[in-house]
Predict the 3D structure of the following.
Amino acid sequence: MRKIKYLVLFLFLLPFNVFADCSNQEVVRYKKLATNVNYSIESIQNESGEETGTFNIIFTNLVEGLYVSNSFQYRDYKPNNGVATVSGYYGGVNNHFAIRNSKCPKVNLITMDVKLPIYNSYYKEDICKDYQNAPVCQKWVTMTVDEEAIQNYIDKNTIKKEEVINKKDVKGIFDYVFDYYVKYYYIAIPITIVILVLIILIYKVYKRKKESLF
């Protein structure tokens, strides 16, 4: 019994390498290589050229035994010439991937979150015909939309735009006079001068008559 206790204590005191076959220096080096891994997404289309709403995720720069792992699906994707293609992932899902090395497969060197967009089948329908720039009428969206959501967005934002336009259209008398003056300045300036001269002359005549009375 005492020998077993000593044996357990001896094993407990032994240095434990959490990286299995990898040394600490190797893990550091693999992590540095893993930071160079990039990804891009590619929409999958059917034979008719229509969007399926699924994607290929293409990982590149997978060198020196690096590969892609999806721990939630228990699937590993080994590269071919440094490239690994992950197929059939649906839009709207936040997918979690880890970059690992074949020498120490239980170590997540880095993790990568890939949020895929959602295909909006309404973007080419009549409801979006005049609103191609609206977020809800884009081909790819971040949230699922339907006709009701699109119509609500259009109604809400169209009303706001109309209110702004109506406010801009409301003008006072001064605005109209100013616009007329700017548009017909070549007529307005001479008329203004004549009126001012007449006012000055009338004032002088009035002043003289007033003085003559006294």
Q: What stands out?
A: Confidence is low (pLDDT under 50) at residues 2-19.
